[in-house]
What we know:
The protein starts with 19 loop residues before the first strand and ends in a 7-residue tail after the last strand. It has a 7-stranded mixed β-sheet, with helices on both faces. A 4-stranded antiparallel β-sheet has the order 7-14-4-16, with no helix packed on it. A 4-stranded antiparallel β-sheet has the order 6-5-15-17. The protein has one domain: 3-Layer(aba) Sandwich (Rossmann fold). It has 9 helices and 17 strands. By secondary structure, the chain is an alpha+beta fold.
Amino acid sequence: MKFAAKIRSGRNGRIACALCTTLALVPAVASAQVPPGGLKPKPGVPIQQGPPQQPIRVKVEVVTAPVVVRDAKGEMVTDLDQLNFKIYDNGVEQRIEHFDIGGDALSVVLLVETSNRVAPMLPAIRKAGIVFTQSILGGTGEGAVIGFGSEVQLVQPFTTNHDKIEKAITKLTDGGSSTRLYDAMTNAVELLSKRPSERRRVIVAISEAADGGSTAKLGMALRAAQLENITIYTVGISSAAAEWRAPLNGPTQAPEAPEGVMLGPPAPGTPQTPSTPGVGVSQPGVNSGDLLALAIWAVEYGRNLAKGHALEEATLATGGEHVPTHHDKSIEPALDRIGGELHAQYTLSYHPTDTTPGGFHEIKVTVDRPKATVKTRPGYYLPLEDEKP
Length: 389
């Protein structure tokens, strides 16, 4: 699916906003612009990580919301202008300071699971490398590649050279028995935090939904992604196709949920009594509304999420999309679908008028187009006083 990129820019005011917050695992964004190419560790070398949950202070100066608008038939609407949109932060309308549709340059980190559970699917993933560079990065995008299994490895630092990216993807090999998905997401957020703020920051993960061996919490990774204006897209490798190939090894993190919310089927005759409004459908069979509520809860508390739904919840928390695949040949169309959305996606940016309240800040976007539906990120989390250093 191909879309012509259009750019419409609004006023780019710079309002100083000295908001400091605490994030785990994500270093402070450097004030100087990083030279093209980003970090330069040797390819194949595991990425070094700081101590888990180490508090580091960062500044949040601007909030960016990716927005996809669809009509009553489900087709993307691409003819709207800035005046058609309104954006709210905790119910307060904000002044849109930057507006774009599909034109802002992309910085994309591709995460690829390389555990031995999915090793038989790697040939299809390698073949899909050209779709990643052409459909997602396009002419102006830059990409980096991280492989993760028992280790998290940066196999290609940021580059605009499509040949280098595709070659790095073709060199991905069996990465062991663990699946450190949450650690890989955390490191991708760290890489993207160093890219220029005017670029759209995106993670595309090709993975199962399971995690084994990570020290990072998914809720903390998503909290960091929200504050760094990162959108996560995921291509779900069929768990049914992988289950018979190899068992999940490595220490797994138990899923968590609000008190009273069950993450699995209840025992016969046992009713569910959730204590959190909007959350309460047991897994399996949860719908997107319940997953979104769980994702927001996980971001607020820095926890893990419902088992088997981590990929969906990561996309709901950041405004992206989860595309499940049921066989190897559907990986390329899934990446093409993501590329189509990215190049028809509106970007709205604003400086929050009130960042004093801690906790979760809800973002809401409306359009003045009848029967249109709007997809965007649900918000971002700011630490409470007792969470600050």
